Amino acid sequence: MRRAWCWGIIAASGMGFVPGAVRAQDVSAWAPGTYALWVCRSGPCRDSTDQRLVTRGVLVLGGSSELLTALPESLQRALSPRYARVKANGCFDVSPQPTGSESYAGIARQAGIVWTSVDSVGAISFQLYRSPDAAHDVLLHRVGDELIGRGDSRGAGSAAVAWSPDTVIARRIGPVDLARCAHAALRRLEYLRQLRRLG
Question: Is the pLDDT of residue 125 over 70?
Fold first, then answer.
């Protein structure tokens, strides 16, 4: 009943301010950790066979970019977010999106992120994709032991889209562990290097 009530409130509010949501400063203090992540079309999904699933994987929200200094330099480079002027304080490792998905989520398989609190709506925000002309912006509220909200794909020029928002769910599964996605990013970088050599 509580979950149904929460989804009703979020849908009615357009996933902006959620009545009864935890204050932003409390959300940002609670948020650091490792999460199972789902990005879905037209409502929540938690099954890999669900046709609404865009991508799923692991999201890590660190408490500070200083956590990166504890990782080997190779992993720090793998987590450097593209087109950002500050160091990553989190990362993700997700599955490839199905062909024809109307979302920019899942195009980048692994990357570092810069997550911040949004005080005006008691939420946190970050991006699951960023390029010079496109992005996927995520805004999440805390609901119980989860972070729930929306993901918006946007672009300019040939990358401009008018897709409806995604539903994004992050369920806490442990403490901060940046290596969960850093190692995956490093493996993918090595794979791409090998492809370039073969080409």
Answer: yes
Task: Report the SS3 class of residue 4.
Answer: helix
Count Cβ atoms below 10 Å from residue 62 Cβ, excluding itself: 23
Is the model more confident about 3 or about 9? 3
Tens-place pLDDT, residues 150-170: 999 999 999 999 999 999 999
Query: Which residues have a Cβ under 8 Å from the Cβ of 102 and sit 6 or more positions away?
Result: 41, 153, 161, 163, 164
Answer CATH for 2-198 from 2.40.128, 2.50.20, 2.120.10, 2.60.120: 2.40.128
Q: 65-68: which pairs have CB atoms within 8 A and are 24 or more residues apart? A: 65/89, 67/176, 67/178, 68/178
Strand order in the sheet with 53-61: 110-113, 90-94, 53-61, 33-41, 166-174, 146-155, 134-143, 123-131, 116-118
**Cα-based torsion angle of the residue sequence 7, 8, 10, 12 in order, rounded to the nearest 10 degrees:** 160
Q: Which helix (H) or strand (E) holds 75?
A: helix 73-78
Cβ atoms 93, 75 nearer than 8 A: no
How are beta strands 116-118 and 110-113 bridged, if at all?
Answer: unpaired
Q: Where are the domains of the chain?
A: 2-198
CA distances from 85 to 1, 71, 81, 113, 151 (A): 43, 20, 9, 11, 22
